Amino acid sequence: MNIFIISILRDLKMAFRNPSSFLNPLMFFVISISLFPIAISPEAESLSNMAPGIIWVITMLSVLLSLNTLFHYDFDNGVLEQIIISHHSLKLILLAKTLAHWILSGLPIIILSPFLGMALFLDSKSIVILVFTLIIATPCLSLIGSIGASLVVGIKNSGMLLSLLILPLYIPILIFATSAISHSQSNLAFDGQFYFLGFILIISLMVTPFLSALSLKISLE
């Protein structure tokens, strides 16, 4: 646990020394959602119907933008090789790095989402469901994204390749999250969507650290 906590604190300190690594995706999230009322329609009914899809698509893209920084700094400094050959659990360290990434990318999105939901005329019940879907599913975005980031860690300008690898895996999360919010707007049951999102989160926690560790070893070899 000491190594786990130290790894999280180290990644957070590194990120705050280079704040653009997490501020740029966050600004992209806020600005992109703010432009939709101008580009589509200022009517409350139209925006509220499209709000779940808008917020979740921009959330996925924002997390994807921040994934390039997950391992690249440690790779450039030679720290990744030291982590791999150390006697500490590589899977635990990668899980700590992924948690730090979520704190910097997913948590601010969760905090800002109610305000942006109100800007898109979501009702209070739908905003609560939106926040809960983000709490459950944004960790999945970081966990699944860590697999792609570990595969392309040694490739320069790998943003497009990372998108092609990760975006198809994000589609089930997008479907269930937006469906839960849309069902709440229509006063329909949305328990099933939350069960599926919870299942994806559990599977991601169990599987992705092992896959990320294996992918990282393959990339560095």
Word description of this protein:
The protein has about 220 residues and is mostly helical. Helices cover about 85% and strands about 0% of the residues. The chain has helices at about 1-15, 20-40, 45-65, 70-75, 80-85, 90-120, 125-150, 160-185, 190-220. The chain is globular. The mean pLDDT is about 85.
Which SSEs are present, and which pair or pack?
Elements: H1 2-17, H2 20-39, H3 44-66, H4 72-77, H5 79-85, H6 90-119, H7 124-151, H8 159-185, H9 191-220
Helix pairs in contact: 1-6, 2-3, 2-6, 3-6, 3-7, 3-8, 6-7, 6-9, 7-8, 7-9, 8-9
> Could you tell me the number of beta strands?
0
Beta-strand portion reads: under 5%
SS content category:
mainly alpha
Structurally, the number of domains stands at 1
Tell me, briefly, the overall form: globular
Mean pLDDT: 87
- Which sequence of SSEs, written as H and E, runs from N to C? HHHHHHHHH
Features:
221 residues, mainly alpha, 9 helices, 85% helix, globular
Briefly characterize the structure.
The radius of gyration is 18 Å and the shape is globular. The chain is mainly α and 221 residues long. Helices cover 85% and strands 0% of the residues.
